[in-house]
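Hey, I'm writing a tutorial for new members on how sequence and structure tokens pair up, and I'd like a real worked example in the thread rather than a made-up one. If someone can provide the structure for the chain below, I'll link this post from the tutorial.
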Amino acid sequence: MHQNIGLQLTRVPRLWRAVIDQRLAPLGLTQTRWVTLYTLWRLGDGQPQCDLARAIGVEAPSLVRTLDQLSEQGLIARQPCDQDRRTKRVYLTPEATPLLERIDAVVTQARTEMLAGLSDEDVEQLAGLLSRIEDNGLAIQAREASD
């Protein structure tokens, strides 16, 4: 039974994103673009590019192309940081708001459907268990990085 947990932990997020991707496809959004916009919206305007990349789980150079595309679409703007001119901060434009509201509605509906049949207590317990697993993984990485 425990041998399948790792596979489930990789399949469920992939399935979750696939459901959302399919529902957002008519809006012309790739996963990379909607995740970037949605993460920025959740974190708040003015995020440094490197922090945004870290929050998404990609390398900063990989994010640049996506930010270029979102900028061309008029959905974000990048401005130099006052304290460090080498750092760019990312801001949502007013044009992004209706799209983000649609993304949020799709994500919320998908979450509701994906968690169907689970009580609030089940979801709370699941979140706690996943947090513990994540903490264990981070501890392993830290330990192995220092070896």
